[in-house]
Amino acid sequence: MRIELELKALEEIKADTLIVPIFKEDSLEEGLLQKINEYSGGGLSLLLETEELKTKKKEINYLYATKESPTPRLILVGAGEASKTTPHLFGQLAATAVRFMVSKKLTSGVMLVRNLNNLDLALTARHITECSLLAPHEQNKYQKKEENDVQIEQLSISFHNSPVENSLIKEAISRGRAVAEAANFARDLTLEPGNKLTPKEFARRATEMGIALGLEAQAIDEEELKKMGMGALLAVSQGSEEPAQLIVLRYRGTKSNDSQPIALVGKGITFDSGGISIKPREGMWEMKNDMAGGATVIATLCAIANLKPEIDVIGVVAASENLPSGKAYKPGDVIKTYSGKNIEIIDTDAEGRVVLADALHYAVEQKPSCIIDLATLTGACIIALGNHRAAMIGTDENLMKEIRQASEQAGEKLWPLPLNKDYQDMIKSDIADIKNLGGRYAGAITAAAFLRAFVGDTPWTHLDIAGTAWLEENQPEMAKGPTGYGVRTLVEFILCRAKK
């Protein structure tokens, strides 16, 4: 889909449909809406008179236009209260309209933006671009395609009565495209079933994409992992016939050998049965998405490679399957990690934090300025925050503040949880340095406390994306399935760091 800035007057616009956000306070006293009413043959005034006009956020009013209209159709999408409008809301409205266009087999549209709150137009264009490109993505790769399948070819953005700086808007659209395409790549990876995306295949796709974009890419196999002493990653992998991989992508934006890179670390469990502590049958099929954090890390590096900021970034993903077999690691085992610390295994279904222990220590060895890890780590996170927010836990308040600001700018929601000695005490082991499960309570926090033991003094933040990596139902602006959560936030964070 092409996303372009539309500079023509309303009367000269040509497309299948005109998309107009409608606010709760709107009336025909406004000149633009009088014109829209004319185009609708009085349909808008009738909806207002009968109080049938849908103005709640993301509700759709669909009207056919008169011959005088520059477009044959009108999509009036509810925008709520004008005073609460944000750039991200315009993105959600555009995505809602795009998904509606797909259902109606429309191939082109123009979104009319009324800037009633003096919003940043470049940021608004960026959100419209990102959300519009994320919106039509469906989990239909393995479905037979319809012969009359229609794709949206173009969406144009028209800022009504607002002066625009063309170069800034085009730059924003270009950035939005890079981020959205990367997030969709993460969604494609996360969607893949376990028989299609093994750890080795995950590594192949990640390194192939990385090299194509100019990244340094490396997939460390089990033979090398054994030499390195990555006992935690290998322990989780030993129950599977599929070998583990440590995927490493590097972006060098500073061209300096002394630079401290931002380190991104991702959990890459391509299928999680729970191992010997096997999961219940219900919902186990969803555990193909247990590598969503790793997919986000890979996709973020791809976006950064396209955007080329002057900063260094490294991505590390621990990829493995977690299966039960005669060779599988067991509850009660003691595992020596890459850092030298010993882990007592209480539950083999708490495997994500185990593989991350080695990946985090590998990241520490790269002498980064900070470490951010992402993982679909705990069901406890979903119990605490539902599917609306990721959990954020870390050791550095300034880093967490930066990440939270980036998430707000990117339109991805997260929420901080505490981490102090009380929680660290819950994962003390009687026979080893640490145990991989802290008990029934505060599960998301004790999981983070476990990870904390492997980052040393490096500023670190953990994002538990268990509730946000996957949508269980279709939303007006996004299809059910993988979301690519975290790509937009991490790109925003990295670009803001680069500016400093």
Description:
The model has no long low-confidence stretch (mean pLDDT 96). The chain has 500 residues and is an alpha/beta fold. The radius of gyration is 24 Å and the shape is elongated. It has helices spanning 31-39, 43-49, 87-103, 121-134, 166-191, 199-212, 222-228, 231-237, 292-307, 352-365, 379-385, 397-410, 421-425, 443-452, 487-499; strands spanning 2-5, 17-23, 60-64, 73-80, 108-114, 154-160, 216-220, 245-252, 262-272, 312-322, 334-336, 342-344, 370-375, 390-394, 414-416, 434-435, 460-464, 470-471, 481-482. It folds into 2 domains: 2-161, Leucine Aminopeptidase, subunit E, domain 1 (3-Layer(aba) Sandwich); 178-499, Aminopeptidase, CATH 3.40.630. Helix 9 packs across helix 15 (487-499).
Topology summary:
Blueprint: E1 2-5, E2 17-23, H1 31-39, H2 43-49, E3 60-64, E4 73-80, H3 87-103, E5 108-114, H4 121-134, E6 154-160, H5 166-191, H6 199-212, E7 216-220, H7 222-228, H8 231-237, E8 245-252, E9 262-272, H9 292-307, E10 312-322, E11 334-336, E12 342-344, H10 352-365, E13 370-375, H11 379-385, E14 390-394, H12 397-410, E15 414-416, H13 421-425, E16 434-435, H14 443-452, E17 460-464, E18 470-471, E19 481-482, H15 487-499
Parallel strand pairs: 1-6, 2-4, 2-5, 5-6, 9-10, 9-13, 12-16, 13-17, 14-15
Antiparallel strand pairs: 3-4, 7-8, 8-10, 11-12, 14-17, 18-19
